[in-house]
Specification:
Helix content is 0%, strand content 60%. It has no helices and 12 strands. It has an 8-stranded antiparallel β-barrel. It has a two-stranded antiparallel ribbon with strand order 4-5. Strand 11 and strand 12 form a beta hairpin. It starts with a strand and ends with a strand.
């Protein structure tokens, strides 16, 4: 649904199997070196393979996911996206962190997250949350449509 220069979409569900068809926002970090996140409680620096995310509009519902895979292990953190907004070539995605195996080693979580910045090839993708990974910047590409 378009309102002026912005698009707002709300979700019922999320899936990690969302394809590129009908995508609203999709992105991934592309740093030549894998960035690390710092776990706030332990102060441990954990190497990652960056961030990946997608928010897809399908039949007026939003299906969205995000994930930060750990480097050299199967550990990761991620969850779903429940709201997407694109306005003036910037984006903001909000949702939840459903699992955190990078820092907290726990599943069945429900922490609010936000992923935001500019659409384009040279974006600084900022993720913020109210738990272990309070905020972190990744450099990458974000396609908004």
């Amino acid at each position: 649904m378009a309102v002026g220069d912005s698009t707002r979409i709300f979700a019922k569900d999320a899936t990690e199997n969302a394809g590129a068809e009908g995508a609203i926002v999709e992105g991934q970090s592309d740093s030549p070196q894998f960035p690390s996140v710092i776990c706030t409680a332990s102060k441990e620096k954990v190497p990652t393979m960056g961030i990946r995310f997608s928010a897809v509009n399908a039949t007026q519902d939003l299906a969205g996911w995000w994930n930060i895979p750990g480097s050299g292990s199967r550990n990761n953190t991620g969850g779903h996206i429940s709201h997407a907004m694109v306005q003036n070539r910037t984006f903001e995605l909000t949702g939840t962190m459903d699992y955190d195996y990078l820092c907290a080693q726990k599943g069945n979580l429900y922490y609010e997250i936000s992923i935001a910045d500019k659409c384009g090839l040279e974006s600084v993708i900022r993720i913020t949350s109210n738990n272990e990974i309070s905020s972190h910047d990744f450099k990458g590409k974000v396609n908004c449509r």
